[in-house]
Specification:
By secondary structure, the chain is α+β, with helices and mostly antiparallel strands. The chain is 42% helix and 12% strand. Strands 1-3-2 form a three-stranded antiparallel β-sheet.
Length: 80
Amino acid sequence: MLAASTSSVILQPISARARAIVRRAGASADKTFFNVSVDDEAAIAEAVEAGYLVLLRGHDTIWRITARGEAYLTQLRGAH
């Protein structure tokens, strides 16, 4: 049986604010995003629900982009 190509996977769309947070995490050297604003909490929750960010172990306000989040960013770049 052949494995599904990651390029054929349709990833869950998220809001512009959540997308910006995922992009910031993906662009940082250590692939993390540090939350300093309560205004970002809903967008972070949305990105977590989509599987694009996870809470960094041992921290309350540092989020790491997941492989799924990286695939989402790659898919976005391919769409433009």
